[in-house]
Batch of 2 targets.
Target 1
Amino acid sequence: MNMLKLAVLAAAVAVGLAQAAEAATFRYSTQNDILGLDPHANNHGVTNAMKANFYEPLVQRLPDGTLAPALATEWQLLNPTTWRFRLRANVRFHGGEPFSADDVVFSFDRVRQQTSDMSYTVSAIERITKVDDLTIDIVTRGPNPVLLQDLTLFFVMNKAWTERNNAVPVVRTAGATNFPNLNVNGTGPFRLQERVIDTRTVLVPNPQWWGRANHNITQAVFQPIANPATRLAALLSGEMDLIYPIPQQNIQQASQAANVRVVQGPTARTIYLGFDVFRDDLVDQPGTRNPFKDVRVRQAVYHAIDIETIRRVTMRGSSQPTGLFIAPAIGGFQADMNDRLPFNAERARQLLTEAGYPNGFTITFHCPNNRYINDEAICTAIVPMLARVGIQARLVAQAMTQHINQIQGPGFNTSFYLLGWTPGNFDISNPLRELLTVDEGGGAFNIGRYRSARLEALRPMIVNETDQARRTALIREALTIFRNDLPLIPLHQEPQVFGLRGTVENFDMHVQEDIRLFQVRMR
Amino acid sequence: MASETRDAVPGHFARAQDALSRFWDSDVMHSFKRSPIVIIAFVVTMIFFIAAFFASFIAPHNTFDVATLDLSNASLPPAWSEGGSRNFVFGTDDQGRDVLSSIMFGMRVSLTVGFASVAFAVTVGVMLGLVAGYVGGAVDSIIMRVADVQLSFPPILIALLIDGLTRSLLPRGVHDELALVVLVIAIGLANWVQFARTVRGQVMVEKNKEYVQAARVIGLPAPLIAIRHVLPNVLGPVLVIATINLALAIITEATLSFLGVGLPPTEPSLGTLIRIGNNFLFSGEWWMTIFPGVALVLLVLSVNLLGDWLRDALNPKLR
Amino acid sequence: MIAFVVRRLLQSLVVMLAVAFIAFSLFNFVGDPILNMMGQDATQAQRDAMRELLGLNDSFVRQFVRFVGNVLRGDFGVSYRLGLPVANLIVERLPATLELSFCAAVLALSIGVPLGVYTGLHRHGAMSRFFLVISLIGVSLPTFLIGILLILFFAVVLGWLPSFGRGEVVRIGWWSTGFLTRDGWRALILPSVTLCLFQLTLIMRLVRAEMMEVLRTDYIKFARARGLTNRAVNFGHALKNTLIPVITITGLQIGAIVAFAIVTETVFQWPGMGFLFIQAIQVVDIPIMSTYLVLIAFIFVVINLVVDLLYYAVDPRLRIGRGAGH
């Protein structure tokens, strides 16, 4: 369309003007606003990314997924359950208070509260004790190979400031307003200048930060824009320097616009299909046998899905088809076990016949329509693929709120659904617990209530095994069980797609889809 | 036997012809013939109706039969553009559906939902408005306060509530079959207040006029006066709102589908096609939203022009 | 008259109670707030504790009674999503929505009424037909599409107007206004045009329909016969008599603009109440949803009261009718 060419031209002019005015102000936008500034209250992607600009953990995860020292400079294992951490010296909070071991112990007690959504980051820790002002010991409940992973989102607050402002309890609802939700006092590279909820959050660099600033921005303005088209318009018109995400179908056009470039990379989120493998009857047709209890039917569905066409057409070539429920960035990933059952409609029909469904069957297919990239389009594309092997799927695509309400426990009112998962600690132990086992309080998202005795036994062993080689062997056994039983059918890993203006010289994508300001360089 | 038939046919035929020619010469037809715009609107509306209701026979592809869809055909431009296929005149959408066929099938859903829900809203609204305005007093207060309650909820939420209620009250299978009916009632109930309040306002004026008082004096029962004498005089604004509300109902249906309480996305309505196509507006795949959009605009335009004309033609005061 | 107003205000209390009650029964269908409040890594014990803390295990009648009790004490609760008092959040958003609605209503009336009069007077004129057709195109497209097209053209292609937000606002006490800065005015244009289109078309067509009707009545013919100027007849007599349905609908539409600016506010990232509400629906933020709905009920009650009072002002016959009837 000629309109786009015009748009590009006009946008180029606009950006020229904008550049001259404010060279070092970095404006960026994502879909949702942050939920609040309290580092211990909410566990939510955009919010966690924003917190990381203000607050710091003991150990940080770099954009490529590797770990690096942050508030702790070095650590060693004293015995299988005790770690000693040296803390960084001469660090100050934004308010001027010096950072010490007391702050870490205090933050540990604060984040452990039941109202804190971040308590999972320290759930493996028995206690933290102060050795001296700059040394602490962390005692874990059992041998723990993923402690450092867990610690990357354990943010440290200042004890005196929090107590002074009567903010020790993590308040989510009734009663007093949570002071730290509106105010910031961290050790991180940025300070809070202004926050207007759902409108903008303004950050300025922290001149006293202990690290060497890689960025050259003097001010960062975060403005959420919910509507994808409006967000893209704001980038094209030069009102934004960076937006996230760009819808797949706009990648090509956006990258052709003058002064705009698109960068993309993989994320750690896996999209998958799930089955009810527990009930005898279909949930929407009481009295009708649940075909998904038969592994051959699950294999048939797997063979019926033409993932390559979904990747090429629906995802515009930007997704990564997968045979495992964890992404390459997740600890425990086994590259040689990531192959999929091939797309083979003939084989699918054969399996259905063997399972006693020569004429197929009818099911309801539950799908979100505003949560994952092109979620509704993926589901709509899967319906004809299933129809061609004889499975008539009635698609119910609804907003994520209703979708999750439908499929979640205690009702689990679905026999067949689509969902996505990013392991919070970037380790296989998390999805093993949440998606694939049910014992010991696990399986909050094990919608199909799949249970394998061997997998239940393997999970604690994997969690506690510190020897890498032995751990890998256990993980491979668990993955083999998964590939044989197929309680879920992995589809692909979602891509992350950022739109940048020419004003941005450098921006490092983070595997957590975070926008970390301290890596941003402007021209 | 044969002669009887031969006898009968000319007789019926003559009578029919007579009636037809009387209709043809009537005032209504006269104003119809005089206005080319109305004729065009009529023809367009008829084309849409025929295309919609005979979609299964005349559409080039059956887009509601999911087994025939092929993702490899997705996002093809219209036939006359580079890369287009003669098989898909207006191109295909992101699922490989033929846009032209989608419009025909989608039009069927939209027309059904649109007309039925507006008819429902008009019936409920006009009746309650008449009663409220004519009877007045406590009845008026109650009806109008119910209207206040109703207005406080966005139509979408009301539709959600009704859908949720029917979902919990009806067995699952039945609900799926009744999805369309539920949708019509939900959208209709969400929009009756406008009609009720407008009619009430008009009735309050009309009921004090001489002709109504005269009717009362000769002892006609109140309902009869309200329906026979007051109603015809308040229909003008009702028709205006009704024709505009048709568009609103069609769009509401699309929004509901988005929230997951409408019809499944595998059987898209016209509004749903526009909603999905909207995602492709910035990506240069304009045909996915422009063609359904143009179809909707033409439909609403024609229906409104016909509504205007009908209103003028049927109103004796305007002749 | 005063008795009438007092009675109506008492009725409005009942209306607001009913709205709150229906709202509470509605929440069962919207979803489970806990699933949205607690991230994916929360334990079942945490979810249960939060459910208990929020009182979500109680029957909805009890939740309703508690809500009403708190509201009577001036406590509207704390937003589940943002962890801040709902009253503060709504007060913060109120100016944005009211300013946008005001501009849209002014646009709709100041363009809709004259166009309605014009097209009513010149029923067969080419310009009349043009206006009628154009206005219909505006209502037959979904708001989100119109908004995006306006953004595409005026913000991206021409670069004249901002594509989102309120621009620079000035705080006067608790009220934040965009009326005092150039930036604020620029930001207002696209959203108010988008929001006013439907109302504009409706008002224009209603005025036209009524105008045509009134112009045929005897007393207009009589006025003409008396030799009054066209101008005096059209505006002094005819227009005044078209106003009853127009006032009704305008009243309704002003309420509707305020209440249902939802889509426009979402498209333009306008930080108003409608946007707050739609976000609340997405995460089942019950305190915000119920407060918002009660507030909207209040606005409708007030507007309808004003409309009924205006009837009396515009149409003297109603006064006589009422007076005789009571």
Note: Residues 1-8 of chain B have pLDDT under 50 and may be disordered.
Target 2
Amino acid sequence: MILRLIERTGVLLVSLAVSSVLVFAFMAVLPGDPARVALGVNASEQAVAELRQQFGLDRPLTTQYVDWLGGLLHGDLGTSYVSKAEIGPQVFDRLQVTLLLVLAGMVIALLIAVPAGTLMAARHRKVSGLALSAVSQIGVAVPAFLAGILLIMLFAVKLGWLPANGWTPPAQDPAMFLQQLILPALALGLVQGAVLTRYVRSAVLDVLREDYLRTARAKGLRPFQALWRHGLRNAAVPVVTVLGLQLATLLIGAVVVERVFVIPGLGSLLLDGVSNRDLLLVQDVVMVLVIAVLLVNFLVDLLYVALDPRLRVGSR
Amino acid sequence: MRRLNPSLVAGGVIVGIIVLMALVSFIWTPYDATFVDPSIRLAKPSWEHWFGTDKFGRDVLSQIMVGSRTTLFVGVVAVGVAAVIGVPLGILAAMVRRWPSEFIMRANDLVLAFPALLLAIMFGAVFGASTLTAMIAIGIASVPSFARVIRSGALQVMRTEYVLAARAAGRQPWPIAVRHVLPNVTSLITVQASVSFAIAVLAEAALSFLGFGTPPPTPSWGRMLQESQEFLFSAPRLAIFPGVAIAIAVLGFNLLGDGLRDRFDPKLEDRR
């Protein structure tokens, strides 16, 4: 277990280092220089030179990289070439919004997937099971932003029950926050729930074939009792892995959903950065998202081992 | 006789219809998909315009038809990029020694940290948004899944007796890869291509929706959805038509992928 932890931590650190080089290098190969991009084509040579000097863009790339990485490690993401504002506080503020949205989406996905997937597995040869399978197949095919638009049409336009968009911080007005959170979280959660349902179903189907479940039935437990007491915990192992991978997908999916619901999250910040040609901001947000994805994968890997003792011995 | 596989049939029919629609759009559409006619803007569905018109008076059905070309084009190129890089990598990872193989798979994992959407936004920021950047970004992001699936398939092939025999007979790795491994992983490639196609359709729609995909005036389902957003109250149909088109296309490729998988591996059939 400890060996595994060390190995995975090593892999995480190397991945972080390599991806930071990739992100930096990618933004550095940019045709034209960032100062010129930030100021626009009509800016004078002198203004561009001043900006380059002000932000240290005239230094060698390696120095700039080391500087950027050092800042990242201290939570200092630098100053925007365009707005001249500190990037760090913006990114962390927006990250909180996105994380709240993603977590709410995840909870909804789980609330849908666990019961629906279990039911589908338990009735996989019956009409009700097949019908649920068909519904989940359709759910998988609907992108989150489309789900968002459909939800707005139904609950905001037609029924008028919930606001169509907007965002209020929970501390400012908890009731409004919840109202505005429901639709975007549903848009993310319904689609991820459909994907997850298929994994839950497959995991529960595997468990249903196990000897220990037959033994439990032979002891006189009803099918659902047996599944509840012995099956679900075993089915959790593969589901947790998928859940982790989905968390990464949700994080990126949130970028589009934020646009639909006009939510000031990390995704909106990234898209604003692109349209304002604020390259350092884009570089920082991309890096933060990549770090989040790598961290989630790392945690899932550990959780996977913790849940399934068989994996503690031997490697993959 | 073998039982007809419903997923394969349904997926095949849906994909067939989309391909047909794209092909027909080259020679015929009800109207010119980019023709602007302000006098009939936001017209409701009628005999003249089956799906109505958009805010510029363009015919929605014609746009959906031409948009299917964009969707298929992006999918084909993205899946092509992913397969051309991912398949050789997967086979290579299965055939080389442990450390090089480990290195390939680790690099592969690293690419997973850059989802298609993020890559495409980065490409868009640096090179400007276009269909090309979207296709390449989606393609690169799909490489890891190809490499992973093909590697596991190729590992199984490498353990078969005919490969052992070929090696014992002194055949070089390269001919073994081409003559024995590749033909035996084609079913995996087909399944993965179908699944990746569905993901590419979703990614393209999302990117066009965000303005990082196909630029106007070329019709694209994702951008039609984005343009429909300001009319959710007055003309919700403008969102419904492209939305349904996207969902049906993804459903079709997913079903096709599932169906193909069952066909190539009948043991799995009642699992899905």
Note: Chain B touches chain A at residues 106, 109-110, 112-115, 117-118, 121-122, 124-127, 198, 202, 205-206, 209-210, 212, 225, 228-229, 232-233, 236, 239, 243, 246-248, 250-251, 254-255, 270-272 (CB under 8 Å).
